[in-house]
Hints:
The protein has helices at about 10, 30-40, 45-55, 55-65, 160-194, and strands at about 20-25, 90-95, 100-105, 115, 130-140, 145-155.
Amino acid sequence: xxxxxxxxxxxxxxxxxxxxxxxxxxxxxxxxxxxxxxxxxxxxxxxxxxxxxxxxxxxxxxxxxxxxxxxxxxxxxxxxxxxxxxxxxxxxxxxxxxxxxxxxxxxxxxxxxxxxxxxxxxxxxxxxxxxxxxxxxxxxxxxxxxxxxxxxxxxxxxxxxxxxxxxxxxxxxxxxxxxxxxxxxxxxxxxxxx
Length: 194
C-alpha cells in the first residue's frame, strides 16, 4: 500500500490569502504528463502569448516611471525551464519527479519583485512582499490517464502588502486564471501527443 504524501505546495505555503485551482484531464500516463510539464510550449497559442505580454505590462510601466530600460520583449515560445533563468524572478521551489513542480515568486504589488534562495522562500518575511507559489501536480486517473492540477497561492507578509495585493489581485486574477488554463492545455497537448 502506498502512503499519500501532501503536495509540496502545502509545505511551502501552507497559509495563504488567496488560492485558485484548475484541473485538466489528460489522456496520457502520469509519467507522460509530468514530462510534458517541462517540454510543452506554454505560449503555443496567440491567446497565451497575449496574456503573457499583458502580465509584464506592470513591469514595463514601472521601468518607464523609474527611467530604467524596459524588460525584454516576450518570446514567441517558452517552456517551463525558460522561466527559471537567472534573471527571472521565478524560482524552482520543489521538483518531485513524476508528481509535482512548484515555482515561487516574491512580488511587491502593484509591480516589481525580488528574489531569495528557494530554501528561504517558506520563511521569507521582507515587508511589502506577497509570496506567490504556483504548482503543477500530476495525479493518476484510471488506467493510463492523469489529471493535471495547478494551484496558485498568494500570501502577503504584512498589512501593507495585503492592502496593495487586495487592490491589485481583483484586476489580475481573471487574466492569470486564463493564462493558467492555457498552460494546462499546452501540457495536455504535449502529453497526449507523446
